[in-house]
Write a structure and sequence with these properties.
The complex is a heterodimer.
Chain A lengths: L10 E4 L4 H13 L3 E5 L7 E2 L4 E4 L2 H8 L3 E4 L6 H10 L4 E4 L6 H13 L3 E3 L5 E4 L3 E4 L8 E8 L3 H12 L4 E6 L10 H9 L6 E7 L4 H12 L5 E6 L23 H10 L3 E3 L5 H7 L6
Parallel strand pairs in A: 1-2, 1-5, 2-4, 5-6, 6-7, 10-11, 10-12, 12-13, 13-14
Antiparallel strand pairs in A: 3-4, 8-9, 8-11
Helix pairs in contact in A: 3-4, 6-7, 7-8
Chain B lengths: L4 H9 L9 E3 L2 H13 L5 E5 L12 E4 L2 H11 L3 E2 L2 E2 L3 E5 L2 E13 L4 E7 L6 H7 L4 E6 L7 H10 L5 H20 L1 E15 L5 E7 L2 E5 L8 H4 L9 H9 L2 E4 L4 E5 L2 H13 L6 E4 L6 H12 L6 E8 L4 H14 L6 E7 L2 H11 L4 E3 L3 H14 L5
Parallel strand pairs in B: 14-16, 16-17, 17-18
Antiparallel strand pairs in B: 1-6, 2-3, 2-6, 4-5, 7-8, 7-10, 8-9, 10-11, 10-12, 13-15
Classes of the chains: A alpha/beta, B alpha+beta.
Chain lengths: ~300, ~400
């Protein structure tokens, strides 16, 4: 099983002829992801990935002709919202948007359209998701994983890699690793992904990686207390030393007044029975204490 | 990007919101002339307000009243050049002082939880809304606008009634609320705040008084991700009030925040950069900065990041923490060695590069033979070493 992506994924790459799109399409294919189509307006009729993948002008054509059921977007910020709308209109139900710096007001319209279509959006400004040994969609380096039963969900990119590598080195494998992105307005929340992990028979424990800003971690904690008791969990929150009022790189990482602090998130998670690490390297040990064995 | 009050008012005026006349002065003489004209026009007093982006200007003495042109000049002389939380005041706003009957709070904000624009209102205006939220959260009314329908008239009326506005004020309030929402949409703002929105008494020529709603102070912040499509707003950026290091970082596409410690940090990824700071502090060190070098991390950008870090004379040691994914370790290593050659100031450096092309990176750093560069395999080890170096090193400027 695993969540979001797997052996059933038939992937459409939007922006496959661009620099980022082409590079990561190759990486995803090398990992074993089933890429069935690419799409770049005006490049229809070309092929990508050494002639293995047809490129279409529109998502509609790509879906009709290739049977794509999942899309990943490597389109610059100015065109990325439109890329999501087009994928939705073509009937794609699972969309990953890697693009960063999309204006927040654009995202309000995007997430409303995604909800209306009953689809799922992960991102924007996210590294995507990898179901270990099956499929990777996005930009997470494939080499850091080990197959196993721990689900990882994170608001960050490289910090996720750091944690995943620590798990792998400790012999603890992963089922699916998901980055939900660092923007203030995003498609999937921690709760959305935790719900999928809870319902996945192959995921037995979960690691949550949060950061300052907003209240997504607090809401996740509330949900965990109600729906995930008994599931071994560990968490890490970045930004304990971040100065208030400053945006720490991610558009969403800002402490406003006394809201969004690391302490509030740590307290909420610990209150829900989640073990919170002070360093990424402590996470494997916390999982072991919660009953997780090495694979 | 935060806007100055007078820029915020200009954007609100463009939506026809009621804002009392104002002038902006850079000298006491200009302030005097503006005051003269308002006082001659019937104003009993004028208010003179420092134009700074930092909060708390009132408490710092940056907002004062004056009843005569002489007094206005005196007050402006005091405020201009004043230091407010590290910012030197270079402009003041002058306006007729309003005779305030009641004060309200009104704002449009980006609400992350509901993923909608939220209209917030309170009858407890004129104070920090955070204080109201902490002490009396029930006093704040919140209404969400639909992303496709926008803020609707009836929603604005709901807010007016929730604030106990009545009579002719309801219609005026609806226009103000809708205008606030349009200001947000048209300018890609993530906050448009009017505080106070006031019922102001005015005396007409015949001696009769009337009351009207007026926006007396305004705060707007623009979504940084949307500035590329608003060149007219980019022009409102106050470079004088920005740290030159911040300006240089932005031009290079580097996220940089100066802190007051001694350990410079160069990291790829915002979450990992924050974590690196947290771990330094946990190990007893003090980070000198937050620095996310961004995706890609080509060698020119590495060199630019190094200059930003070394521009801070307090830096005694540098930690480079790169998890290669999109960023390639060998490119970062090349960049570091090159930057080293260009810099006059040699500060010891602990480098930890893992992920894509990490072995190549290690070889490049070893071959450089630079005695100031140490490599570390894990983040914990890198942090321990850099903290030890920084606490032992003398300040070298």
């Amino acid at each position: 099983m695993s969540i979001l992506v797997g052996n059933d994924t038939r992937l459409l790459v939007q922006g496959i002829t661009g620099r980022e799109g082409a590079f990561h399409a190759q990486q995803m294919q090398d990992y074993g992801t089933n890429i069935v189509a690419g799409m770049t307006p005006g490049k229809g009729g070309q092929t990508a990935l050494t002639h293995a993948v047809p490129v279409f002008d529109t998502c509609q054509e790509a879906v009709t002709q290739s049977g794509a059921n999942t899309s990943v977007i490597y389109v610059p910020a100015a065109g990325a919202p439109d890329a999501v709308f087009e994928a939705l209109d073509a009937g794609i139900q699972t969309i990953f948007c890697i693009t960063e710096h999309i204006p927040a007001l654009d995202m309000l319209r995007v997430v409303a359209a995604v909800d209306q279509a009953g689809a799922r959006l992960v991102g924007p400004n996210c590294p995507g998701a990898t179901s270990v040994g099956r499929a990777k969609v996005g930009i997470i380096p494939g080499s850091i994983h080990k197959p196993g039963r721990v689900g990882v969900v994170s608001r960050s990119g490289t910090l996720t890699y750091e944690v995943v590598e620590a798990l792998t080195e400790a012999g603890i494998g992963q089922s699916t690793c998901v980055g939900i992105g660092g923007d203030p307005i995003n498609g999937s929340s921690f709760v959305d992904i935790l719900t999928l992990f809870r319902d996945d028979p192959e995921t037995e424990a979960v690691v949550l990686i949060g950061e300052i800003g907003g209240d997504a971690e607090e809401r996740a904690a509330e949900w965990i207390a109600e729906h995930m008791t008994g599931v071994p969990m560990a968490a890490f929150i970045a930004g304990r030393t971040a100065p208030p009022g400053r945006r720490m790189g991610h558009a969403g990482a800002i402490i406003s007044g006394n809201r969004g602090t690391a302490q509030s998130k740590v307290d909420a998670l610990e209150g829900a029975g989640v073990r919170v690490a002070e360093a990424p390297s402590q996470i494997p040990e916390l999982l072991r204490k919660a009953g997780v064995r090495a694979d | 990007m935060k806007l100055q009050e007078f820029h915020a008012k200009r954007l609100l005026l463009a939506q026809s919101l009621p804002i009392p006349a104002y002038d902006v002065a850079e000298t006491a003489d200009e302030a005097r002339r503006a005051a003269e004209s308002y006082l001659a026009g019937g104003a009993e007093r004028v208010v003179i307000k420092a134009q700074v982006l930092v909060g708390g200007r009132g408490k710092a003495g940056g907002v004062k009243l004056a009843s005569t042109p002489d007094e206005a000049e005196q007050v402006a002389t005091q405020i201009l050049g004043m230091d407010i939380k590290g910012t030197t005041v270079s402009r003041v706003l002058i306006a007729p002082a309003a005779d305030i009957a009641r004060e309200y709070y009104l704002a449009c904000v980006l609400d992350r939880s509901s993923r909608r624009i939220m209209l917030m209102g309170s009858a407890e205006g004129g104070v920090e809304i955070e204080d109201v939220a902490a002490n009396n959260p029930a006093a704040i009314k919140k209404i969400h606008a639909h992303p496709h329908l926008g803020l609707l008239d009836y929603q604005a009326r709901q807010m007016a009634f929730a604030l106990s506005l009545g009579g002719p004020h309801v219609r005026d309030f609806v226009a103000i609320a809708l205008g606030t929402y349009r200001t947000m949409i048209d300018n890609d703002a993530d906050l448009v705040e009017i505080n106070p929105l006031a019922v102001v008494r005015e005396v007409a020529a015949d001696g009769s008084t009337r009351e009207s709603l007026q926006c007396l102070d305004a705060k707007i912040t623009i979504d940084d991700s949307a500035l590329a499509r608003h060149p007219e707003l980019e022009l409102m950026r106050d470079l004088a009030e920005e740290d030159p290091v911040d300006v240089a970082a932005r031009e290079q596409g580097i996220s940089f925040i100066r802190l007051d410690g001694t350990i410079g940090c160069m990291v790829n990824g915002a979450g990992l950069a924050m974590t690196t700071m947290d771990l330094i502090k946990r190990a007893g060190g003090q980070p000198a900065n937050f620095l996310d070098i961004g995706g890609g991390a080509k060698s020119e950008r590495v060199a630019a990041a190094m200059s930003l870090i070394l521009a801070d004379a307090h830096v005694r040691a540098i930690l480079v923490n790169i998890f290669g994914g999109i960023a390639r370790g060998d490119e970062v290593a090349h960049g570091l060695v090159e930057a080293r050659g260009q810099q006059e100031r040699h500060v010891p450096m602990v480098v930890r590069i893992v992920g894509t092309n990490a072995e190549e990176a290690a070889r490049i750093l070893a071959e450089s033979g630079d005695p100031d560069i140490q490599t570390a395999a894990t983040l914990d080890d890198a942090v321990a070493r850099v903290v030890a170096i920084a606490s032992a090193a003398p300040v070298s400027a």
